[in-house]
């Protein structure tokens, strides 16, 4: 068997191994996915190792290091850092996938398969990863015996400390302005250093080389002014005055650039913190649009800050919502990348579309369902012609506020007593309200008849059952409850809670 066949055989085994793919996906996810539940603990562990290693480095400058500290630093910290480096190199790309892909391409084209090309490409990608600044820092941080190299362990914090990463991102966004400033700084230091060297090398005993001149220029332009080198000629002092003024201007410019960058980033950082707080919950609500319906809903529900979030495009409405004390951010809910920031994989997410524009509600529904079919979408429809389109888009429930208002107005005019009764029940003014009781997949209610439940004993009035998209009003007493049924009852909250306590979900 040749080398090509051996490589292909190994690649096939890895490609078809579910265990291999699960482990690789888990390792890659814990390195890169901020939503991974284990990433926080992994990052904290690495940060702890970094700080303890640096503590040992500082401690051994003046005191003898005990054996257990030396053992910990050399054989535990270094081994863990080395293993982390190798794992990052491993998950950077997949050589087996490249080999299989190259083999299929060769089969399709009718050419002989060679493992050299895919392996060369994959190893080159790994080499490119190895020469990145973060990978070089990880590699140098492994070696514990040479003290200067251990200082690189501090730089590993750049990968794991989120605040430092955000600071680096801010500076990266202004790299053009900062690079322009750096080039200007280099130009001024270079020209003024050359000038002071030419003018004072023979008359100033403190300037003996071009390096001394450059050192003086950099210290002067930074306005530090150590005073160890001072010009003695009129020309030299004139140059000093000019670069001092230039230094003040450059510091002011740099400060304004960094402040503006942080001002732009601050809102984004705050929004990300809010989203991270929401994502920690097992269930939460995303409200799209901050209008009158959203305000009425929030005033009625009294939700905790970590149970919901409002997405609104209009900055004026966002500021108004914040003044009201609501959790609201300026985002377009119809954009896929916005909804993907939320933990829709492990949490129970409900999207409530309350925007006045039906077309926008359709876009949001399509976006939510394209991310995950598990997302429950409740949407508003102002035009009855849009109901069918919203259903096709995947909306789970559709609200028709104009239709409801028209019906209530008609009832209020033609049957005022009924209107008062309905209004009292819906608003809870007379304590009793309408409640939903959900029958899950594993519920003690499954298989029981309506008659057997005896709602009167629980001080509840049974209205009907919602089953498979159809509402059964006052069904026969021998109707058997099925999984996913939703019973509607009227009563006090304490009665509903007692009923649910007596008929719990199994498991």
* Through-space gap between termini: 55 Å
Spans where pLDDT lies below 50 across 5 or more residues = none
How large is the count of helical segments?
23
Average pLDDT, rounded to a whole number, is 84
Number of strands: 10
Helix content: 55-70%
Oligomeric state of the chains? single chain
Q: Major beta sheet, specifics?
A: 6 strands, parallel
Strand content: 5-15%
Quick recap:
The protein is α/β, with parallel strands linked by helices and 507 residues long. Helix content is 60%, strand content 10%.
Plain-language structure description:
The structure is a single chain. The chain has a six-stranded parallel beta sheet, with helices on both faces. A four-stranded antiparallel beta sheet has the order 7-10-8-9. It has 507 residues and is an alpha/beta fold. The chain is built from 23 helices and ten strands. 60% of the residues lie in helices and 10% in strands. The model has no long low-confidence stretch (mean pLDDT 84). It has four domains: 3-160, no CATH class; 173-265, Helix Hairpins; 281-399, Rossmann fold (3-Layer(aba) Sandwich), CATH 3.40.50; 431-502, Regulator of K+ conductance, C-terminal domain (Alpha-Beta Plaits), CATH 3.30.70.
């Amino acid at each position: 068997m040749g080398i090509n066949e051996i490589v292909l055989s190994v690649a096939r085994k890895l490609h078809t191994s579910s265990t291999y793919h699960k482990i690789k996906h888990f390792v890659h996810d814990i390195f890169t996915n901020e939503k991974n539940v284990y990433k926080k603990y992994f990052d904290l562990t690495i940060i702890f190792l970094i700080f303890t290693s640096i503590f040992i480095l500082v401690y051994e400058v003046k005191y003898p290091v005990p054996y257990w500290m030396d053992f910990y630093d050399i054989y535990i910290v270094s081994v863990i850092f080395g293993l982390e480096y190798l794992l990052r190199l491993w998950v950077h790309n997949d050589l087996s996938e490249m080999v299989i892909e190259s083999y299929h391409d060769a089969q399709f084209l009718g050419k002989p398969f060679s493992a050299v090309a895919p392996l060369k490409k994959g190893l080159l990608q790994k080499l490119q990863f190895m020469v990145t600044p973060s990978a070089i820092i990880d590699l140098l941080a492994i070696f514990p015996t040479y003290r200067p190299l251990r200082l690189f362990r501090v730089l590993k914090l750049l990968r794991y400390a989120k605040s430092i990463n955000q600071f680096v991102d801010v500076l990266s966004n202004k790299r053009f302005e900062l690079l322009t400033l750096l080039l200007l700084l280099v130009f001024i230091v270079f020209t003024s250093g050359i000038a002071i060297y030419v003018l004072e090398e023979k008359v100033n005993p403190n300037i003996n080389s071009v390096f001394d001149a450059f050192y003086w220029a950099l210290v002067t332009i930074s306005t530090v002014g150590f005073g160890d080198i001072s010009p003695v000629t009129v020309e030299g002092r004139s140059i000093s005055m000019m670069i001092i003024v230039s230094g003040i201007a450059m510091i002011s410019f740099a400060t304004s650039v960094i402040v503006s960058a942080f001002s732009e980033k601050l809102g984004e950082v705050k929004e990300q913190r809010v989203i991270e707080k929401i994502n920690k919950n097992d269930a939460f609500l995303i409200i799209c649009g901050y209008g009158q319906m959203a305000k009425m809903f929030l005033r009625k529900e009294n939700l905790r800050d970590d149970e919901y979030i409002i997405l609104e495009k209009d900055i004026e409405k966002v500021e108004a919502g914040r003044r009201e004390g609501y959790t609201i951010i300026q985002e377009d809910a119809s954009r896929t990348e916005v909804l993907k920031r939320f933990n829709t994989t492990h949490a129970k997410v409900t999207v409530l579309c309350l925007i006045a524009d039906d077309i926008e509600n359709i876009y949001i529904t399509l976006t939510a369902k394209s991310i995950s079919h598990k997302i429950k979408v409740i949407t508003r429809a102002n035009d009855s012609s849009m109901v069918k389109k919203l259903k096709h888009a995947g909306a789970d429930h559709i609200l028709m506020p104009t239709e409801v208002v028209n019906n209530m107005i008609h009832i209020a005019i033609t049957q005022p007593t009924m209107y008062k009764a309905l209004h009292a029940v819906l608003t809870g003014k007379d304590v009793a309200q309408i409640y939903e009781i959900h029958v899950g997949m594993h519920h003690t209610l499954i298989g029981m008849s309506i008659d057997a439940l005896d709602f009167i004993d629980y001080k509840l009035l049974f209205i009907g059952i919602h089953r498979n998209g159809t509402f059964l009003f006052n069904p026969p007493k021998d109707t058997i409850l099925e999984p996913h049924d939703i019973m509607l009852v009227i009563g006090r909250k304490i009665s509903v809670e007692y009923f649910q306590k007596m008929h719990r979900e199994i498991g």
